[in-house]
């Protein structure tokens, strides 16, 4: 008996913490203390020495049992074959989204000529897509939080595919207006692919992977312009609409391979399904699963709008809404403005001659020429250096400063357009401006899923995406209608909006660089997984027997 009690006293000191807190401090790691998470036990319990002959408490019966959370498993399994497949599939969704957006700047001047539409109807054709996206973004986010990321994504993709193909057969303006609005309603759910994608990524790879996914957006925009070059002169806009739906068709077929997010399954109480998903990923990656039992986080209400306005997130939510609004307002404004400026010839003729403005903005047909398509292609190619620049600076400057820098550079390029410049300089300035505003958009897509907890992550991204669509909804009336009155005023609006967005980025209260995804909304932000993965490349687990 004496020997048994001696051995019992040599066991590591056991600490308790509430379920859901998986991170160990560096002091704990250094001292060799081990942590075991036990459901329902209060934190801060002290070590207890047993009297001679006393029974071992039930909660101490097996102090070496391992437990782990989904975050621990994702970090332990790492980045591998599964994430590569998921990257390609998520990229297809983004490519399809980009093509549906890019087609607006090509379709508008074509229908303006073919159906003799006034400028306000051309602008409305663009805006109705964003009305659909704005009205559905929060809905898709709520569906993804309530019923699963995969469910919301599949429904939105199938919806977009169906109405995208139908719009190619629209006989008159009113039909295409309604059908493109329904396409926009479906596109509002595509950003949820980022939520699903981010929840399967290890912390170190998350920013780089989400940014590299944006390469598919750039590929989509370039592919759409290249497709238009070949299809529009011979087959017309209907075939362009039909062929632009092909990436969505491929994604719709392949998305049934997608697993549901293990983080979502755990939060909704489906432990077995989450464990099966993690084992599947570990098998595909050829990596070992963490030993022990998967802990089920405390179930929370999911997809509640009020959770975005708790004291911890209220200021963040409001600032992010304005940042996303400014991003989409400026990005899509620049896309539309590029077409308008190229058709006009150069900024000098627009800014110094009222006659040139009238000629450009009249009902006289001006189809996009081959030169217009090539210049449009060059400015679209700026998306690629935009990705590379953002990729290089986002983990050096942090998310907030990266967004602020991108907004400032875009504003500067917009102001330089006030100067009387030729077509070559015009193309260069538009190239740089688009590179940085797309970079700001990418940084926002990295930051937003990182800052919200699992219970509201999809809703947070959805509402931000909805605010972006408000900006995109308004921008055609600036880039196409206000431009008739004053090119200076239009450029000043975009420049001023982005300067305010740069300030908003600096005032965001949370920097997510080097932080893990938050699981629970009931604690201070960043309490879990702070600095995780920064101390070694070994298997990361949060409990006894783990190693850093």
Automatic annotation (TrEMBL):
Residues of the Major facilitator superfamily (MFS) profile domain: 86-513
Topological relation to the membrane, as annotated: Multi-pass membrane protein
Keyword check for Cell membrane: no
Source species of the chain: Pipistrellus nathusii (Nathusius' pipistrelle)
Family, similarity comment: Belongs to the major facilitator superfamily.
Protein known as: Synaptic vesicle 2-related protein
Primary location group: membrane
Keywords of this entry: Membrane, Transmembrane, Transmembrane helix, Transport
Compartment(s) of residence: Cytoplasmic vesicle, Secretory vesicle, Synaptic vesicle membrane
Stretches that traverse the bilayer: 86-108, 120-143, 155-176, 182-198, 210-231, 237-258, 312-332, 376-395, 402-419, 491-510
InterPro entries: MFS (IPR011701), MFS_dom (IPR020846), MFS_sugar_transport-like (IPR005828), MFS_trans_sf (IPR036259), Orgcat_transp/SVOP (IPR004749), SVOP-like_MFS_dom (IPR047969)
Pfam families in the record: MFS_1, Sugar_tr
């Amino acid at each position: 008996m004496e020997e048994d009690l001696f051995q019992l006293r040599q066991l590591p000191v056991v600490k308790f913490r509430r379920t859901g807190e998986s991170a160990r401090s560096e002091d704990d790691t250094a001292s060799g203390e081990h942590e075991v998470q036990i459901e329902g036990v209060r934190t801060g319990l002290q070590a207890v020495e047993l009297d001679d002959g006393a029974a071992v408490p039930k909660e101490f019966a097996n102090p070496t049992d391992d437990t782990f959370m989904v975050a621990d498993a994702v970090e332990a399994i790492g980045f591998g074959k599964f994430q590569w497949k998921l990257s390609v599939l998520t990229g297809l969704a983004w490519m399809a989204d980009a093509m549906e957006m890019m087609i607006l700047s090509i379709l508008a001047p074509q229908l303006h000529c073919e159906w003799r539409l006034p400028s306000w109807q051309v602008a409305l054709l663009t805006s109705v897509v964003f009305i659909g996206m704005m009205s559905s973004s929060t809905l898709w986010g709520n569906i993804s939080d309530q019923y699963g990321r995969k469910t919301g994504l599949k429904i939105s993709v199938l919806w977009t595919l169906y109405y995208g193909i139908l719009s190619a057969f629209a006989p008159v303006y009113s039909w295409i207006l309604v059908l493109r609005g329904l396409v926009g309603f479906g596109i509002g759910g595509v950003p949820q692919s980022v939520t699903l994608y981010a929840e399967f990524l290890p912390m170190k790879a998350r920013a780089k992977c989400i940014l590299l996914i944006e390469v598919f957006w750039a590929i989509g925009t370039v592919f759409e312009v290249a497709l238009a070059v070949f299809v529009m002169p011979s087959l017309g806009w209907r075939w362009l609409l039909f062929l632009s739906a092909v990436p969505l068709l491929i994604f719709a077929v392949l998305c049934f391979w997608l697993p549901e997010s293990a983080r979502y399954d755990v939060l909704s109480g489906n432990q077995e399904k989450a464990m099966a998903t993690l084992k599947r990923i570990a098998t595909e990656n050829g990596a070992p699963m963490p030993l022990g039992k998967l802990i089920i986080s405390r179930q929370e209400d999911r997809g509640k709008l009020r959770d975005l306005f708790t004291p911890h997130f209220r200021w963040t939510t409001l600032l992010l809404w304005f940042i996303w609004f400014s991003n989409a307002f400026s990005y899509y404004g620049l896309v539309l403005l590029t077409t308008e400026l190229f058709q006009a010839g150069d900024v000098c003729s627009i800014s110094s001659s009222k006659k040139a403005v009238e000629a450009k903005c009249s009902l006289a047909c001006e189809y996009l020429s081959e030169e217009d398509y090539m210049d449009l292609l060059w400015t679209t190619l700026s998306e690629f250096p935009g990705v590379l620049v953002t990729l290089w600076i986002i983990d050096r400057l942090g998310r907030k400063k990266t967004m602020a820098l991108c907004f400032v550079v875009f504003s500067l390029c917009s102001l330089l357009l006030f100067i009387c410049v030729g077509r070559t300089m015009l193309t260069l300035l538009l190239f740089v401006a688009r590179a940085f505003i797309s970079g700001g958009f990418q940084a926002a897509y990295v930051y937003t899923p990182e800052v919200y907890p699992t219970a509201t992550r999809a809703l947070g991204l959805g509402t931000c995406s909805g605010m972006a669509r408000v900006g995109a909804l308004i921008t055609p009336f600036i880039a196409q209608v206000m431009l008739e009155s004053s090119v200076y005023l239009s450029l000043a609006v975009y420049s001023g909006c982005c300067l305010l967005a740069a300030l908003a980025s600096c005032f965001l209260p949370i920097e997510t660089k080097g932080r893990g995804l938050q699981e629970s909304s009931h604690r201070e932000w960043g309490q879990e997984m702070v600095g995780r993965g920064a101390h070694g490349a070994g298997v990361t687990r949060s409990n006894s027997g783990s190693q850093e």
